[in-house]
Amino acid sequence: MFMSCHPGTTSRVMVATSASTSSSQKCVVFADRRRQKFSSIGERKRRIRCLSVRGGHCDVDDGYVGGSAVRHPKSVTVKLGESSIKIETQKVGAQANGAVVCTEGETVLYSTVCAARELSADGGWVPLTVNYTERFSAAGKFSGGFKKRDGTLKEGETLKSRIVDRPIRPLIPKGFGYETQILEWVLSYDNERTTDALAICAASAALAVSDVPMKTPVMGCRVGYIDGKFVANPTKSEMEQSRLDLVMAGTKEAVLMIEGFGDFLTTEEMISGIACGQEEIARAAKEIEAWAKEVGKEKMGGDMLIQTPEGIDEKVQALVAEDLKEAMLIPIKKVRGKAIGELRQKAVDALKKDENGENGFDFAQVVQACGRIESAALREAIRTNGRRQDGRKLTHIRPIVAECGVLPRTHGSALFTRGETQCYSVATLGGKSDGQRVDDALEDADDKRFMLHYFFPPSSVGECGRVGGANRREIGHGNLAERALLPIIPNDDDFPFTIKIESTVTESNGSSSMATVCGGCLALQDAGVPIKRKVAGVAMGLILGDEKHPEAIVLTDILGSEDALGDMDFKCAGDSDGFTAFQMDIKVEGITLDVMRNALEEARLGIVHVLGEMEKSNPAPRGTMGANAPQISKMSVNPKFIGKVIGKGGETIKGIIERTGVSSIDVDDAGNVTITGPGGCDIDGAREVIEGICLEPEVGKIYRNCEVKKILEFGCFVEIFPGVDGLCHISELEVGRVANVVDVIKEGEKMDVKLLEINGRGQMKLSRREVLLEEDPELAGDDNQERGRRPAQEQGGRSGGRGGRSGGRGRGPRRDSGGFDMDDN
Length: 825
Known about the structure:
Layout: E1 2-5, E2 12-16, E3 28-31, H1 41-52, E4 74-80, E5 83-89, E6 98-104, E7 107-119, E8 128-134, H2 155-168, E9 178-188, H3 196-209, E10 219-226, E11 229-232, H4 236-239, E12 244-250, E13 255-265, H5 267-295, H6 312-327, H7 333-351, H8 363-385, E14 400-404, E15 412-418, E16 421-430, E17 450-455, H9 472-485, E18 498-507, H10 512-526, E19 536-543, E20 553-556, H11 560-565, E21 568-574, E22 579-586, H12 593-614, E23 631-636, H13 642-646, H14 651-660, E24 664-667, E25 672-677, H15 683-694, E26 702-712, E27 715-721, E28 724-729, E29 750-758, E30 764-767, H16 769-775, H17 779-789, H18 792-795
Parallel strand pairs: 8-9, 17-18, 28-30
Antiparallel strand pairs: 1-2, 2-3, 4-5, 5-6, 6-7, 7-9, 10-11, 10-12, 12-13, 13-22, 14-15, 15-16, 16-18, 19-20, 19-21, 21-22, 23-25, 24-25, 26-27, 26-29, 27-28, 29-30
């Protein structure tokens, strides 16, 4: 018997079954229903409606006054070139100071801006951090590494974080001392356009709608040079044909940042490209500014900005101004730094607050006041005297000394010194397997066969500091130098080596990245790399005009102090005909194209001078590969032999490597084989082995100097190709009768053999006897006489009957052949 009570009712159902009942009366149901609890039909309907919605008892009522899940987004669409970008706010990330979602095609980028509530800086610098992240899921991919969780910052993300930071930082007032963080995530990627320019636009838009102070919106744009025309915001497929890869940022009025790489573009071509991008940027920046005024928050200001204390400049002026002006003109960096440090400390001691913390100024306030005096002194000296701290005129380049081959065991090396900036550059050559694997979230990149690593230890500026993995500055400077040298690297067919340059800065007083370009070019030549052209680099500076001197002044080969206190850092690399790389950062609100054109032309003249000094290198670059350099041999094999070359579990390749001393053998799916080995290895021997493996034996051909690999009672195995051998039966060793194999040949000795046949199983039958007969036909008579004296059984004829050694058909392989059935065709 089974009894059940149905929940939600008072009905009780009883079911009884009995084996004795008929099939039509197996179940008897008794039901006793009670009266319904609901007093009215309306109340019953209300109860049913409530129960029909699961969790309905959790719905909020009129007393809820918290945040709403219903958002009312505000958006604007701007055009950059042929592409449209939709920027939306007030839907996602409402708790950030500012948040936007930018959509371009099917690429979606989410950007937020947050400012801390507590003051963390002294007003002398902007406490801004930018972190850009690419999610593998945005492209529907998994990471290729062991860790599948996103979050570890990759080199490409660091470079894009820097490219967002550089144009935005000058637009946040220095007096804003609250830590500010810009975070960006690529959430969807359509593989149409790269995301660095879009990241600039998204970060600027998030700032524009936030309450964080910003002077004016900035927009980013990529520019290509395709078939003689400049294209704003091109697609990736269009960029494959472009001679220029320029990412730039600017406001509605001027250019703020450019970073580009080209195929030896002229000054006018570069200026035209920048003008093309700026036209698109200015229009979009105006639209963003108008939209932000409509939907954005009120900006922080007034008492939120750190103000310069009243009277501090006058007091510092009276104490140390004249001495600081003289110290700023000391030509040697270390001496100048010590003198300035002592004067700053003098001012700090004289103006510090008393024991009660009153009647004085903070340390940072006094140092900032000294910095304003130093900047004014530097600018005034340049404008008035036309001379700089080290006595140079505006266009002069510091003395240059270059030496090559300074590190004997390296493949190529150079020591490049320009004034007080110096670096060791080392070129290392390797094989295909030494290339840098790229695990990129958005792009399917090939392994890098050329890379440059830039090291900037704290000792290069006479300081103590952190040493470890590459920081953002090292990654950025290394990428700039790498892209500057990339156009002169020979292609893989002409020079099938992986190339790595390491640049270790040993002294720094301005533009160590451009010194890296010069030293790297020399190291490549010293390593014997057949570079396409020689290139060099130089850094340009700018001093904007004032009321007395309205014209902007361009400086060639700037010092560290001219970079820090000036208005521009413009790095250029190339040769007399054009530029391969350029990077400009503006510390003011922008410069005009005319100023940029002047800077580029002066940079070109400076590069020509530096190239001339590099030609005077002593010792000069070796120009050929040294004894310690690796060797590479490339060949192609029929793809059907790839498995044979590799062997089971790679055993064939491992055997070749062990036997010849090469370091690696790489085989691709098309049958292209690259053999790499250190100096002194038998790379030709490895090539011969692979060629032998891929040779197809020819019946009737004589193979000379073949090694006997194994001796058996009935014959010997002879290797006609590396790894390919066949059986030479005892009867085929000599013209006459042979009693023992070792009477004719021993293991390890060599002999000539002729391939008589290849059976259906690929087994080869070889003969030394046939070779001897071809070389001396007269031996044939002796052979016939010898065979005539043999018993019938030894001649292998059919007279042996059932007990003979005829090896008749259907009786399996002959015992005296060691299991090799030579009659099986």
